[in-house]
Amino acid sequence: MTRSAVAVFAWAAPVAAAALLAGCGPKPAKSDAAPAAATPAAAPAAAPADADPAASAKVWATRLYSRYDGGSDFNPIVTRDGVWDPAMLALMAKVDKAQEAGDGAIFDFEPLCACQDNGGMTWRVTDASASSPDKAEVTVTRVIGSDTGEVKLSLVKVNGDWRIHDVGTKDVGSYSGLLTEALSDGD
């Protein structure tokens, strides 16, 4: 056995033993204290893999929008990982490049809330449907002050989890269409 293999076994054996014994021993006493509040994750956790793609898309969208809760400064234009599909990420990269070249501010609103300031926003996933195991539509109703609106998410599966392919609202039928049009106007 090589020296590096011995080092791996020397490290792995205690870790494996600890993992096996972690469930042993007395159960902790139940507490009446409320559980600690969860810290928002960097990206929505994977939706459960099940036979109902509409249900898993709804769970994914709920986790995504929960990132707005508690006064979070979540912005899907800035925090893109785990949110957008590859086609939308490529389009956003083109927009970034155009902005760096001074071709105007194309990202002038936050598409997931259809707003410029999501402060005080409440939301609810109100509908989900799937056209295939890898494509779904989710409707989110959001309220900011006295303004209520619907945001429609077109989702696709990427590496087994949902990602946004496009966003639509009453005023902007297709966010990717808006960005594509803005880029073509800059040529």
Task: Describe, in plain words, how this protein is organized in 3D.
The chain has 187 residues and is of the alpha+beta class. The protein has a single domain, classed as Roll (Nuclear Transport Factor 2, Chain: A), CATH 3.10.450. The chain contains 4 helices and 4 strands, in the order αααββββα. The protein has helices spanning 3-21, 53-65, 86-100, 175-185, and strands at 122-132, 135-144, 147-158, 161-168. It has a 4-stranded antiparallel sheet with strand order 1-2-3-4. Helix 3 (86-100) packs parallel to helix 4 (175-185). The longest helix has 19 residues, at 3-21. It is globular and about 45 Å long. 22% of the residues are buried.
Write the layout of secondary structure elements.
Blueprint: H1 3-21, H2 53-65, H3 86-100, E1 122-132, E2 135-144, E3 147-158, E4 161-168, H4 175-185
Antiparallel strand pairs: 1-2, 2-3, 3-4
Helix pairs in contact: 3-4
Summary, kept brief:
The protein is α+β, with helices and mostly antiparallel strands and 187 residues long. It has helices at residues 3-21, 53-65, 86-100, 175-185, and strands at residues 122-132, 135-144, 147-158, 161-168.
General form: globular
Biggest β-sheet description: 4 strands, antiparallel
- Strand order of the biggest β-sheet: 1-2-3-4
- Beta-strand percentage range: 15-25%
The ordered H/E elements are HHHEEEEH
SS element count, helices: 4
CATH C-level label: Alpha Beta
Structural class: alpha+beta
Low-confidence stretches: 1-42
Overall number of structural domains: 1
**Regarding quaternary structure, how should these chains be classified?**
single chain
Helix content: 25-40%
The span between the termini is: 64 Å
Going by CATH, the architecture would be Roll
Number of strands: 4
Average of pLDDT: 73
Radius of gyration: 22 Å
CATH topology type? Nuclear Transport Factor 2, Chain: A
